[in-house]
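TA notes, week 10

Several of you asked for a full example with nothing omitted. So below is the full record: structure tokens for the whole chain, then the designed sequence directly under it. When grading your own attempts, check the secondary structure regions first.
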């Protein structure tokens, strides 16, 4: 396999046709048989990979090149998620636009080529796969909760159902109820994990006003959580960031295993 084959495999698992702007090949590689993959990759990890005799390093989060700067563009996918949950499309576009601008402004000044330049100097093939593997996570978690939960399910039932997925079963940083109480009815549970980053409080309010009872997220910033609490509608449950990322990454690793690729998981991946 080569780096494009790796990307094509991830796209196939996610059910999408084109490489999203938060993912890409930074340094291409051919005849890959040994891969190191992590949630977060930096220059020190590239040196470790060289020492371990790795053919390719795959990061999940975009830390270099265009994906690090343009992650905000994949947030458009959240409009599709919101309309699927019943939010009118014009409202979805408006409430997401402000958050997209904030993310773009935050990524614009970053040192976007630091890790990429190190990979080129080392001659170490490097790529990152973000949105496709988050889509895998989102799909797996939503299908699992749809199967396990009923109209009478409580927030504690949602937590317990999440823990049936091996990546969520354990500590530290396991599933947490961030707004609501254990015995509160969950209502309609919606998983939002694949859209670049968190959509912000206005997006969450739009979900709740459209009839969603509980949002299951990877994580939520403190200021957004405070705003949701001030709104006083809906429940928030965070499944855990590293644990959620690991759900999609582990399924990608399994697909590589099936193709006889030797994989070294590291960098925050939780293995069942």
């Amino acid at each position: 396999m080569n780096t494009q084959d790796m990307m094509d495999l991830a796209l196939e698992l996610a059910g999408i046709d084109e490489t999203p702007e938060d993912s890409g090949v930074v340094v291409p590689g051919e005849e890959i048989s040994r891969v190191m993959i992590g949630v977060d990759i930096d220059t020190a990890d590239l040196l470790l990979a060289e020492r371990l005799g790795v053919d390719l390093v795959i990061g999940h989060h975009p830390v270099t090149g265009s994906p690090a700067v343009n992650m905000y563009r994949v947030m458009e996918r959240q409009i599709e998620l919101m309309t699927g949950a019943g939010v009118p499309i014009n409202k979805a576009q408006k409430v997401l636009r402000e958050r997209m601008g904030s993310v773009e402004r935050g990524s614009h000044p970053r040192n976007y080529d630091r890790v990429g330049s190190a990979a080129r100097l080392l001659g170490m093939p490097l790529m990152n796969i973000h949105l496709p593997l988050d889509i895998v996570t989102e799909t797996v978690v939503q299908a699992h909760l749809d199967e396990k939960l009923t109209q009478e399910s409580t927030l504690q039932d949602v937590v317990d159902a999440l823990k049936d997925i091996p990546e969520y079963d354990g500590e530290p940083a396991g599933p947490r109820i961030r707004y609501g109480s254990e015995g509160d009815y969950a209502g309609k549970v919606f998983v939002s994990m694949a859209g670049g980053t968190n959509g912000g409080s206005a997006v969450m309010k739009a979900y709740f006003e459209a009839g969603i009872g509980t949002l299951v997220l990877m994580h939520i910033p403190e200021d957004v959580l405070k705003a949701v609490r001030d709104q006083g509608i809906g429940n928030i449950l965070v499944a855990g960031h590293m644990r959620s990322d690991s759900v999609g990454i582990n399924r990608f690793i399994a697909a590589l295993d099936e193709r006889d690729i030797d994989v070294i998981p590291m960098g925050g991946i939780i293995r069942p």
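The chain has a mean pLDDT of 95. Use that as a sanity check on your answer.
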